Amino acid sequence: MEVLRGSVRTYAWGSRTHLAELLGEEVPSPHPQAELWLGAHRDEPSQLLAGDTPGDAPGNGGDATRSLADVLRDDPQGALGPSRRQRWSDRLPYLLKVLAAEEPLSLQAHPSAEQAAAGYAREEAAGVPRTAAERNYPDPLPKPELLCALTEFHALAGFRDPAETVALLRALDVRALDHHTELLAAQPDADGLRALFTTWITLPQRAVDDLVPALLDGCVAHAREHGPFTTEARTLLDLGERYPGDAGVLAALLLNRFVLAPGQCLYQPAGSPHAYLAGAGVELMANSDNVLRCGLTPKHVDVPELLRVLDFAPGPPTLLPGEGRGPVTRFTPSEYFSLARCAFAGEEADLPDDGVDLGVEGPRIVVTVEGSVRLRTSRGQCREVPRGTAAWLPACDGPVTVAPVDGPALAFVAADGLGV
Ligand SMILES: [Zn+2]
């Protein structure tokens, strides 16, 4: 068990307060801070801090560091354990992030395992450089992801029930969209959604430049009257202002607009379109960069490939129920990862002295976002992980318990989805 130091990504949509407060840095931060990465991703592997003695407050130790990627390379047996080395090809299968969005992220979807493997092979064979802007599949792996809200978290995800979308379109009352509304009303299913989405995403720019302002006029009028879709209208106005002339504003009309409460967990299966709008959360994903953008971005949009990957089946967003009793709730939607949310009120009467068994083995990463927790390995090693810090637990540490230190605490534990 060692202290793990992640790195902050400063994308323009990030928050100037959330991560700075979490990390105990100057608030507001000089740049927007979007994501804290904890893992062994090739672009930004986290660092292990040497020099802390067990029980010390982490982060105060020496400055000597080793990259987690190097640790995995030098001792895959200790890091992953014998049974997981082969399954994960000596790599860490997941990437853990704390995400803080002040502004919307791009509208996107991720491929299935088969699509990712085939797409990667195709682009490798074609000699597309892995860092090229038009590269869709820099990795051979799928990229399922989950997000567990830390604050109220606003998002668009999954195709809304078409009947609801028809009601929304009629309520916005945009004459230029009447024809599209009636197409969807005549075929209120996945095929109708595919037809309308395809129409919008392939419109000539001239047509988009006419339609989007007309749509936004409808949104202004609807919001002014406090109509039933005022939240949706405000979101479209916000997106239209940030991305004028972007067909993704039209596509956003088709998606569920919802808010997660803190502790709720959203999953993005392959093919599900989604855009995170605002809020902070803990995100856990397969260690892959395979993203197909659908709009709301200045970046490359590969429409034919996107249409192959998108799942047009309508339905509500996938909220994970979570398993477990007491302070630990576990979300395991994929073999690549599992997230445990450890929420201690600090007054648990029935907590064993050593704390709660985490119930997962293999390579684990712990990050604390409130209070402080104490981790204890089966080998007797013990360490406190206070707010804003993280720990790396290699497979060779065996079973680990977690307990709060002096009062309420909230920590998250990432593991793979293979269990014990
Ligand atoms: Zn995504």
TrEMBL record:
Top EC class of this enzyme: isomerase
GO function terms (MF aspect): mannose-6-phosphate isomerase activity
This enzyme's EC code(s): 5.3.1.8
Region (Disordered): 45-67
Reactions catalysed according to its record: D-mannose 6-phosphate = D-fructose 6-phosphate
Needed co-factor(s): Zn(2+)
InterPro entries linked to this entry: Man6P_Isoase-1, Mannose-6-P_Isomerase, PMI_typeI_cat, RmlC-like_jellyroll, RmlC_Cupin_sf
Pfam short name (any one): PMI_typeI_cat
Residues annotated as domain Phosphomannose isomerase type I catalytic: 4-160
NCBIfam families cross-referenced by the UniProt entry: manA (TIGR00218)
Protein name (Swiss-Prot/TrEMBL): mannose-6-phosphate isomerase
Species the sequence originates in: Actinomycetospora lemnae
